[in-house]
Amino acid sequence: MPWRTALLVCCLAVLAGCVDPGGTGRQAPAPVGASAPDDAGEITGAVVQLQAYRDGKLDELAGSSHSLAVIDLARDASASYFSADEIGRLKRSGKTVLAYFEIGSLEWFRPDYPDLRDRHPDLFLQEWAEWPGEFFVRYWERRWWQEAIRPRVDRALAAGFDGVYLDSVVAYEEIAADRVPGLDIEERGARMVELIRRISDHAKRAEPDFLVFPQNAPELRHHPGYLDAVDGIGMEELFYRATDLPCDLDYCAPNLRETRALRRAGKTVVAIDYATRPENIADACRRYREEGFAGYVTVRDLDVVSPPCP
């Protein structure tokens, strides 16, 4: 899952006092005063930017023609959160706007990490070997919901986001079995779905049209309650792995099969592929059209506003 790289690079730059350069992708702006799509079913294309917001603002994203934007809850992936005014301006450019954060793990640079680690060390499991400085958590514990996840959902609601985009859902299968004796992968999956349902129920009580998009792990659709809790799914590397590598590994075909099933169930699919070669970008875009997915082809670091599919 390449998104950890983007967030870590951003955080290190902030801590060093650096200013990230803005993205370079340019598109025709949406009409001034355009309204956002009424629901997830009207999303036809997406943009994902998790760092390097030009001048710390969302103007470049607002000037793009994508119908959905996924941005971090915080502009620096840490403590400087986007305001309701900023999110409102982005929505007025004609976009549905989702707040990105993780629900099955916690990174060292998040503002709630020190306090949670000090007060609830038993919530933390092993470090994610692929992403140093990020730790799996006991995401099924009520303390995790109360002190980490619910505050993020409430912040997204208060800022006026249209929904949330939930990462590290795959924690349920990545956690080492010997760290959670008695919890097999089926039970861990059920507990992840329960957390997603809790997020959905809490948010939709406050805002019935609030959107919930988990990222990856489409196989969780087989658990009771999952389909009712989600409005769509984000899927990385269905067709191209970072970077320009055709997705031909063992997990690729099952992921696509399960994603197709979610689309048939009426869920919006936001596919994110990592490619820079024009022929691969064109191929991914063609496949999005064939599958009925809202797609986005971009770079691994998610630090530019790449053009939409034609």
Which key terms come to mind for this protein?
alpha/beta; single chain; 310 residues
Description:
The chain is α/β, with parallel strands linked by helices. The chain is 35% helix and 18% strand. The chain has 10 helices and 13 strands. The protein has helices spanning 3-15, 59-62, 84-92, 113-119, 142-159, 171-174, 185-206, 226-229, 252-264, 278-291, and strands at residues 46-49, 68-72, 96-102, 105-107, 124-127, 134-137, 163-167, 211-214, 232-236, 240-241, 245-246, 268-274, 294-298. A 5-stranded parallel β-sheet has the order 1-2-3-7-8. Strands 4-6-5 form a 3-stranded antiparallel β-sheet, with no helix packed on it. A hairpin with a 6-residue loop joins β5 (124-127) and β6. The protein is globular.
Shape designation: globular
Gyration radius (Cα, Å) is 18 Å
For the biggest β-sheet, the strand order reads 1-2-3-7-8
Question: What is the overall pLDDT average?
Answer: 89
Going by helix content, strand content and strand pairing, the class is: alpha/beta
Number of strands: 13
Distance between the termini: 26 Å
Secondary-structure element sequence?
HEHEHEEHEEHEHHEHEEEHEHE
Summarize the amount of helix as a percent range: 25-40%
Low-confidence stretches: 8-36
Q: Quaternary status of these chains?
A: single chain
| Residue share in β-strands | 15-25%
- The tally of helices reads 10
The major β-sheet equals: 5 strands, parallel
List the topology elements:
Elements: H1 3-15, E1 46-49, H2 59-62, E2 68-72, H3 84-92, E3 96-102, E4 105-107, H4 113-119, E5 124-127, E6 134-137, H5 142-159, E7 163-167, H6 171-174, H7 185-206, E8 211-214, H8 226-229, E9 232-236, E10 240-241, E11 245-246, H9 252-264, E12 268-274, H10 278-291, E13 294-298
Parallel strand pairs: 1-2, 2-3, 3-7, 7-8, 9-12, 12-13
Antiparallel strand pairs: 4-6, 5-6, 10-11
Helix pairs in contact: 5-7
